């Protein structure tokens, strides 16, 4: 078999632009996922608040129990049936973000619950409110324990972002498929796409490893 990477070299500008869109979608979805995950994770800590706990639990069950691709299709192809037209980029971001947020919430909840309850009691004995204890005592310690599982979730989010190409978003995968439709060199193009995703996940892995080492060795600075 003869390999021909000339379509990849000729289309590097389109692939670079697609990579930029992939990074933008992933970064924005990451912010959505972390924000929603933090709120939902904290909301599930107190079963006594039945309404809040029930809503958060239902959200996690719904988004973890259904495929991401189906959720993206509902946002982009399903909502127009109810007269709700959303931009493809927004559907990709909100779909990825809410899906990731369900998993982040479990990471947040588990990390917070792993902190000894006595620290909360000690903070409240010093006059702190539960919210202040959570913000100044519990969360800073929990963040260190969140980093390894969050790293796995961030990497999964980068790889899952390839699905947004099905929403007509001109991300890396979409641009690669356009090159394939003209050149018919699918193996070479998909191999180049795989290398780009590998580099993106590698950068995230190194950054999180550095953060984990700093926080783990010297505490929060």
UniProtKB/TrEMBL annotation:
This is Putative glutamine transport system permease protein GlnP. Part of the binding-protein-dependent transport system for glutamine; probably responsible for the translocation of the substrate across the membrane. GO terms for cellular component: ATP-binding cassette (ABC) transporter complex. Keywords: Amino-acid transport, Cell membrane, Membrane, Transmembrane, Transmembrane helix, Transport. NCBIfam families: HEQRo_perm_3TM. The chain crosses the membrane at residues 20-42, 54-78, 84-104, 189-208. SUPFAM superfamilies: MetI-like. It is a multi-pass membrane protein. It comes from the Bacteria. Gene3D superfamilies: MetI-like. Coiled coil: none annotated. It holds the Pfam family BPD_transp_1. The keyword Transmembrane applies. One of its GO terms (biological process) is amino acid transport. InterPro entries: AA_ABC_transptr_permease_3TM, ArtM/GltK/GlnP/TcyL/YhdX-like, MetI-like, MetI-like_sf. Residues 19-208 form the ABC transmembrane type-1 domain. Belongs to the binding-protein-dependent transport system permease family. HisMQ subfamily. GO terms for molecular function: transmembrane transporter activity. It is found in: Cell inner membrane; Cell membrane.
């Amino acid at each position: 078999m003869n390999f021909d990477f000339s379509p990849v070299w000729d289309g590097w500008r389109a692939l670079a632009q697609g990579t930029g869109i992939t990074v933008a979608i992933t970064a924005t979805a990451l912010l959505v996922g972390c924000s929603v995950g933090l709120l939902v994770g904290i909301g599930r800590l107190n079963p006594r608040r039945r309404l809040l706990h029930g809503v958060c639990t239902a959200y996690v069950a719904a988004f973890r129990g259904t495929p991401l691709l189906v959720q993206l299709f509902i946002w982009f192809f399903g909502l127009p049936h109810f007269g709700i037209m959303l931009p493809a980029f927004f559907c990709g971001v909100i779909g990825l973000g809410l899906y990731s947020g369900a998993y982040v919430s479990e990471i947040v909840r588990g990390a917070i619950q792993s902190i000894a309850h006595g620290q909360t009691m000690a903070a409240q004995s010093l006059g702190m409110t539960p919210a202040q204890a959570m913000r100044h005592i519990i969360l800073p310690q929990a963040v260190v324990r969140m980093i390894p599982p969050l790293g796995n979730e961030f990497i999964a989010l980068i790889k899952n972002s390839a699905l947004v190409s099905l929403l007509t978003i001109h991300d890396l995968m979409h641009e690669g498929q356009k090159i394939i439709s003209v050149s018919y060199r699918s193996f070479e193009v998909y191999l180049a796409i795989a290398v780009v995703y590998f580099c993106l996940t590698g950068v995230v892995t190194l950054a999180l490893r550095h953060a984990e080492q700093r926080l783990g060795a010297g505490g929060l600075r």
